[in-house]
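Design job #97: recover the sequence.
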């Protein structure tokens, strides 16, 4: 039997698809490529925007067209938020909610025996325990591996559907995380990226206090040559005092994704983001006092309902003041089922486009300033690949700067998947070229 998988959306979904592939393999299945014929097709869907819902439905139809006799399983966020629509689709045989992924092989067996549509989706309020899918043994790519540490979010930002798709906060058992980390390190992965729906909430379900620092401490104590990166930290959860706890871990990369979403307090209130710009800037100042070249990446939404031009200019000013190493600019997209979808003063598409173009330009300048500030410094780089044409090896520095070093192919072969200290000397492509010291 062959199983094929399609994944939409974020890194958490990609991680979960990897875990699912390993589950199916352990049941004796061969894993088919997305465009190969298969007996079972699993679509791990996304629901972050109305467009993501549509793409999820299109992928289901596409799979069915390619494999008319296969068992079609739909899981992931859209299987949760759009469960009745998915259940009604003729193409679909099994609907499995976000907390039922580990049971999918069992559900497939049930379907093959009975040939009756299976619907296994709980209401999001009832998603009460972490759905442990077992250890993920390998990731695509050779240097970096993701580890899911947490599920769910209880912040309910007004534009976000995620809490309705993923349910309340559940942390993965520490022993399962440590086992997976150790296995990945022994397999040669040099960077572990801790990921989850809202990783800052790890361990907070009992007393509301985040315990990410305790987990990082435990992972740090595993023997081996590796570093740890955080996929993101929510300023809706952490503050400038908490971030200091993370500075004591030598293995932790000097890079954090800290979503600001808007530079305007007025819009942050409407978004129900639970911090204001003074608090956000305090976190940034604390980080920069620790390491002035600490990499900070962020997300900003333009055209949120009620965003006046002066609110938008506050976002531009934020990008101008803080040298982010990368800014992801999103145009606000209405998402049915969220409070923001019903807000008055929705912004016309043309205004959103104009604001997005302007902010992208400001973001490019911000990133260029960050690159320039790093010239003349030394950073630890994990080498990932070799470019034959340019005779350079490239990798990411701990602070998210892309670094390049001239090298012959033979030397590069040995350097890939190892760390090197690089003196960063001059701008090159999207990063900085330097020399090994
Ligand atoms: S913190 Fe807000 S934006 Fe992030 S997942 Fe939770 S509700 Fe969504």
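Job complete. Output follows.
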């Amino acid at each position: 039997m062959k199983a094929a998988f399609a994944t939409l959306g974020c890194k958490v979904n990609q991680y979960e698809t990897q875990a699912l592939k390993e589950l199916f393999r352990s049941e004796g299945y061969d894993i088919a490529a997305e465009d190969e014929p298969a007996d079972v097709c699993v679509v791990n869907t996304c629901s972050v925007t109305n467009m993501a819902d549509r793409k999820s439905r299109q992928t289901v139809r596409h799979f069915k067209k390619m494999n008319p006799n296969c068992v079609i399983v739909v899981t992931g966020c859209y299987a949760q938020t759009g469960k009745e629509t998915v259940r009604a689709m003729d193409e679909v045989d099994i609907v499995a909610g976000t907390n039922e992924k580990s049971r999918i092989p069992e559900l497939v067996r049930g379907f093959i025996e009975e040939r009756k549509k299976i619907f296994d989706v709980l209401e999001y309020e009832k998603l009460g325990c972490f759905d442990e899918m077992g250890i993920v043994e390998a990731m695509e790519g050779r240097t970096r591996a993701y580890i899911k540490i947490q599920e769910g979010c209880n912040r309910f930002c007004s534009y976000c559907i995620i809490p309705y798709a993923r349910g309340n906060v559940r942390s993965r058992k520490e022993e399962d995380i440590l086992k997976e980390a150790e296995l990945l390190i022994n397999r040669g992965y040099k960077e572990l990226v801790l990921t989850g729906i809202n990783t800052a909430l790890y361990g907070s379900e009992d007393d509301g206090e985040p315990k990410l620092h305790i987990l990082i401490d435990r992972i740090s104590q595993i023997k081996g040559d590796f570093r740890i990166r955080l996929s993101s930290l929510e300023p809706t959860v952490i503050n400038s005092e908490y971030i200091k706890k993370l500075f004591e871990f030598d293995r932790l990369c000097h890079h954090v994704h800290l979503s600001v979403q808007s530079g305007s307090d007025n819009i942050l209130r409407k978004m129900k983001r639970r911090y204001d710009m003074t608090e956000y800037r305090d976190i940034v100042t604390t980080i920069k006092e620790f390491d002035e070249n600490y990499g900070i990446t962020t997300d900003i939404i333009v055209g949120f309902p009620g965003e006046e031009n002066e609110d938008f200019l506050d976002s531009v000013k934020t990008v101008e003041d803080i040298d982010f190493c990368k800014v992801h600019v999103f145009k606000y997209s209405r998402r049915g089922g969220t409070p923001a979808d019903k807000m008055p003063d929705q912004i016309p598409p043309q205004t959103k486009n104009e604001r997005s173009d302007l902010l992208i330009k400001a973001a490019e300048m911000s990133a260029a300033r960050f690159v320039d500030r790093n010239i003349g410094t030394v950073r630890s780089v994990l080498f990932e690949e070799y470019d034959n044409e340019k005779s350079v090896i490239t990798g990411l520095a701990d602070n998210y700067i892309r670094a390049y070093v001239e090298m012959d192919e033979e030397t590069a072969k040995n350097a890939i998947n190892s760390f090197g200290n690089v003196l960063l000397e001059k701008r090159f492509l999207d990063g900085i070229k330097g020399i090994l010291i």
